Amino acid sequence: MSNIVRYRGELDLNGIKIPCYILEDGTRVISGRGMQESMKMVDTENGQKTSGARLARHLNQKSLKPFFTKYLASGHFEPIICKDGEKKINGYRAEALADICDVFLQARKEIELSARQAVIAEQCEILMRAFAKVGIVALIDEATGYQYDREHEELQK
Known about the structure:
Layout: E1 5-13, E2 16-23, E3 28-31, H1 32-38, E4 44-45, E5 48-49, H2 54-59, H3 65-72, E6 80-84, E7 87-93, H4 94-110, H5 115-144
Antiparallel strand pairs: 1-2, 2-3, 3-7, 4-5, 6-7
Helix pairs in contact: 4-5
């Protein structure tokens, strides 16, 4: 797999901005930090955002482990180190964000979440609803051929 960024952009899901990339081999990647911020996993210290170790911490929480099991064995949440010129990007496959949201929503149904986990689950619900709306519109656009005629960033609107 080639980890060189070929295209770059930013998803804007109702004000939630997530840097995203497409690698030379077509792999879609989301910035690890952007992914964490979109789920409200990033803390602040003295007004500064702390770095992206939160995701790994949540993937390894004992209470959530049973919900992540089917993904963890496959290496699904392994970080992808990409190069965008001289810039190094720590990212994840794009599908990982929806899968993590799915895990938090399923866990919320089955167990009592901590206060912090509940905030993340709430944000995951917002993200999943945005994904669903964009997904159905994109599928209709592809089925009808409209994706060639629509405005450049119409799906994000």
